[in-house]
Specification:
Elements: H1 4-21, H2 23-37, H3 44-57, H4 61-73, H5 78-111
Helix pairs in contact: 1-2, 3-4, 3-5, 4-5
Length: 113
């Protein structure tokens, strides 16, 4: 079992140090993230669901933590989340199933369910 709240807090602290070491790169990354996540033809919640699916298929535990946290804040339901995870499993096979389980753990922790 993971502790996603602690994990994402620790990663945020480490990323803060990286931000100090390479501020221009991180400013560029933050600007790209902001532009990519902005509401447009596709809303922010849908974009976060896409990011989560890519994070699961790409086996990125940090991506899972940060994007599930954002999705919970945006009001994702368990039903929406499991459909997104279904797509990630479909696209990534067995390894994605293991990371989908990680995403469910993160959802349960961040949503309190």
């Amino acid at each position: 079992m993971s502790d996603y709240k602690r994990y994402t807090d620790e990663l945020s602290a480490t990323i803060g140090g990286i931000r100090k070491d390479i501020p221009d790169v991180m400013k560029g990354f933050s600007a790209m993230a902001g532009a990519a996540l902005a509401n447009g033809a596709v809303d922010k919640k849908t974009k976060e669901m896409i990011a989560l699916a890519i994070g699961v298929a790409g086996h990125c535990k940090g991506c899972i933590g940060f994007h599930v946290k954002a999705l919970v804040a945006l009001g994702v339901t368990r039903e929406e989340l499991v459909e997104v995870l279904g797509m990630a499993i479909y696209m990534g096979g067995g390894p994605s199933l293991m990371y989908a389980a990680e995403a469910m753990q993160a959802f349960e922790e961040f949503s309190g369910t």
